[in-house]
Amino acid sequence: MTETAYEETIAEHHSHATEHRTARSLPEPLRALERLSRNYWWSWGRDGNAVFRDLDPETWERAEHNPLWLLREVSEFRLMQMATDPAYINRVAQLAAAFDEYMQPSEKTWAARTSNVRQAITHENPAAYFCAEYGIHNSLPLYSGGLGMLAGDHLKSASDLGLPLVAIGLLYRYGYFRQRISKAGWQEEHYGEMPPSDLALELVRDTAGAPIHVSVEMRGRQVYAQVWRAAVGRIPLYLLDTNIEANEETDRWVTGHLYGGDRETRIVQELMLGVGGVRALRRLNVEPCVFHLNEGHSAFLTLELARELVEGERRGEAAMDFAEASARVRERCVFTTHTPVAAGNDEFAPWLVHQCLGESYWQRLGISFEDFLRLGRVRPEDEDEAFGMTPLAIHSCRSTNGVSRKHGEVSRSLWQSMWADKAVDDVPITSVTNGVHAPTWVAPLLRDLFERRIGSDWAEVIYDESKWRGGVAKITDAELWERHLLLKERLVAFVRHRTYHARAHQSESFEYREAARTMFDAKALTIGFARRIAAYKRWNLLLSDPERLHRLIADAGRPVQFVFAGKAHPQDMGAKVILQQIAVWKRDPAIRQRAVFIQDYDQEIARQLVQSVDVWMNVPRRPLEASGTSGQKVGLNGGLNMSVLDGWWIEGFDESAGGNGWAVGRADSDSPTGANEAAQMEAESLDHASREDIDDAESLYRVLEEQVVPRYYDNRDEHGVPVAWVRMMRRSIETLAPAFNSDRMVQDYAQKIYAG
Ligand SMILES: *Cc1c(COP(=O)(O)O)cnc(C)c1O
Known about the structure:
The protein is an alpha/beta fold. The protein is built from 33 helices and 22 strands.
């Protein structure tokens, strides 16, 4: 092969890969699957997931639920079998019709019907949403945890509500790490490369067909990014990607890993997200009415908007000085903080800022380096303070909000010193409580029940409380319990399957491996605990009295079983030790059939757990849980929360009419310690058990022993239905679903924050 021919082949391969056509053309009756696989709507559209799965369940599992892989890998014979199956053809046609209808411009959406929103946020001037991570679906693994899931749910609800919004993020070539636990119980991190051709992304091109590039100067040179577009229903998500030949090798790694690098990697990533993100929107001719900074990572965007004004780049605007420019920028930007401790906020040492941004950055803004540093400080004159992204965001945005009422309060006290003249209660930080995207998180069996009892439009009017009250009253005890039990049987099968394979992978003994086939019992009270392994989440609270815990688990007549999952930050050795303790503890022959740790917590595992457990446990150290959302997913599925009164649960917990869950620890939600002291405690020692830890552990055991276990096992009717328990399940659904969903959340943002 000649050199040019070789290059052409590569180029062809490359363009083929980047255009990521599926390698084959599908038989006519299934052709719509190709189109459906290009928009993540399939993942929450009715029957969408099942239509792809049923094409070939085995390949679907191997493809990790990625429709593109599925369509590429499914065998010709299987494809033709399904292409000649009238029932399947019909399902594909229905799904495609629902998708086409969904994508039609409509005057009937909530945003089109709500006049202040319709006027303020338009297709010409949409809201622009910036976030460092997005949890849209497992097959687009650009998230690490709660923040990403929340962002994904925000986009899906914006789409469902017809709210004009564009989103900006980064395409991490290696995403977040995959977790494996060694035989000794130690967490190992793995990174798998994700070629964009395997993802449902489209490279954004100019009218001449060339990929568009944006560039940002950092570390003394221009760094270029190409832009990918993911379709999330009606919402475009633009992802910047520096892995291109125009860049030096180091710079290709700017978008290498999510939260994987050092401080320098973090600051250059944030430059690309904020500055590059604004430039991408300009290239795309998107003129946002408002810029939403979801967490401080993207706060550099405010400086880029100011630079445009200072340098007179905006059409019809004369150049102006920085003070005027930033006042103008403030009017366009809003900020959501997610971190209740000062230490959790991103900050950078001044030398690093100097090195990565470079002289020209503040020169172009018309300010000195000292002035520049002041923008990122709580006390601008305090030269010992680092450059903080949260102070920068608060200074530069017209509105700041926390993510639950309590978190709003905590944030007002945390950042009070930025308003020297204001009392805590007058600090202008508000709150919008987080919510979850119901069609993404509800089990298909319950979705079906909601359709029957609440109405086929249950998801469109999910925020309508009266509709829920009326609808849930129509659900019978027997049908709710029956469906829940089926979901628990699915969970048991899932637990056995995952555990068997994990043990095989760890080369465990034959006997131990085989034991996975009989572990867990769908009839036993099942408690889920899945969250990041961080000190404040207090994973070790449950294990603080192993004997007492053992009595709960080993009770022959009223057993309790536990399912755990979660990742520790790769550099957090303390968290890895906690994980190891859990891993060693659950190997105990007396425990092993009733406690399991599922490796590699991700959106799919979360879905399995939140749809099936009886109880969801959450025991954070107050007031460090800004909101939390996993318990909201559980509530929607009829599971019961057993949680410390922190974050969203302060608003969600309701004792009336039999109750919708349990509160662990003190009933008042006031923190004995301020957020900063709590952070201090967090930093001090992982084993450090404060008075509050001891009290909360005692309370946790008592709630379990005296309330949860009896409520589950007692009071069964002649069909074995635990009547009082099911009543709580119903309360959980009717009180939590209409309040803690992301449609309500996005409506709040649109009306109170974006249009405000
Ligand atoms: C919902 C979700 C979270 C958020 O959980 P909280 O512990 O409630 O903050 C994190 N990770 C995954 C995979 C989720 O689905």
